[in-house]
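Side project, low priority. Logging it here so it doesn't get lost.
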Amino acid sequence: QVQLVESGGGLVQPGGSLRLSCAASGNIFSIYVMGWYRQAPGKQRELVSTITNSGSTNYADSVKGRFTISRDNAKNTVYLQMNSLKPEDTAVYYCNRRQLQSLRWNDYWGQGTQVTVSS
């Protein structure tokens, strides 16, 4: 099993910044994709950004140029730097880790952290 612990959410004014962190522990395998998804009230969960073990990144169009994902493999941690936040970024943000274990991809989720952008 893999445990994911998220931190860094909170309340911020429009135009502000937050940095989310997600630390993985447990049965860690080296080939993975880690990322962030978000779910706003009444909406489906959507992809925000992902990063692979080799450093390849992917972003939703709505956050390109504002959010930056990074990782520290030594700490099994992924970060999401969120700048120029907008009210529409308000959501619960979930960390995800998908890793290759014995020729099979397994998904793990964090508990979620609330991000609220409001004046």
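Brief comment: The mean pLDDT is 96.
Revisit when time allows.
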